Amino acid sequence: MIEKGFKPIGKDFPVFIHPISKEEYALARTEKKSGYGYKGFTFYFGKDVTLEDDASRRDFTMNAIAKDQDGKLIDPFNGTEDIKREIFRHVSDAFLEDPLRAIRIARFKTYTHLKHFKIDESTQEMLLKISASGELEKLSKDRVWIEIERSLRSPNASEFFTLLLKFKLHKPWLSSMSDSKCNDQTSAEIKWAELESKNNFKLGENLPVPNNFKMHVQLLEAMLDCRQESSEEDLIQSIERINFHRNMTEINALLNLEGLSKNKDFISKLGKHMLEEDFTTLKEASKDEVRNVKLHLIKQAITKTYA
Predict the structure, then answer these.
(1) Apex 151 CA angle, 148 and 157, nearest 5
(2) Considering the entire predicted model, what is its pTM?
(3) For 217-242, what is each residue's pLDDT tens digit?
(4) Between 174 and which of 126, 148, 170, 232 could a Cys-Cys bridge form, CB atoms 3.0 to 4.6 Å apart?
(5) Angle ∠(247,251,254) on CA atoms, nearest 5
(6) Which residues is 15 bridged to in the sheet?
(7) DSSP secondary structure of 40-74
């Protein structure tokens, strides 16, 4: 295949890219567990490996179906029947060898057309075995975040986190999670911020969370601290952390979260008055005066909010 111009993907993985169509061509292969995590495999793709051998190493029966050049389905594990019955069922014990498969089944549940699929009892047992095996902690934290972010960008993100929690697959990467529900009608960043707020803002401690997600989390945390009954000193601190002038788009989106419903009107009113204050006067103030002028403007906005 290399001689014909196909480009291999990776050093040992038997998948090649067509030089013109850019389609992927994968050789039938078998895998042998040789280490930890989802990368701990050696591959064999000799001519004696059959299509059925290859299919036996797939994750779910619905992903172990092939089609020949005449359009005839080759389905050695009855995947088409499981699709009709709307069931996720693992193909073989090889499922246990790749802990990422447990995370991926949770992500598959975020697809609208797969959301209502049931998980076969035997596969549920496999998920519990993986959660108890210690293999999940061998996964790359970057790979785990990829699965999390993909799920957050789905309209059914709660399905992902609920399944992880149900089968104890949240440890060690989301070990502080006890509440898996979020508003699925919001953006990925806001979903993550809401989940953080429901889990003591410790959810992402073990993960490489991107800065745009962190910013939304910090903003929501500051907004939750911005309460009508707060002292003036605490309010000033919250206002400075929120930065209404810079983050108004994100603030308006976060205000729709249920956790902010009690203080929504107060924060909205406060933000309105903050934007009405003329902070351009700070440019005219000396370095020694800037802080006092800024505090004066913030206090004016607070006074108008309570009026």
Answers:
(1) 115
(2) 0.85
(3) 999 999 999 999 999 999 999 999 99
(4) 170
(5) 140
(6) 26
(7) -EEEE--TT--HHHHHTTSSBGGGS-EE-TTS-EE
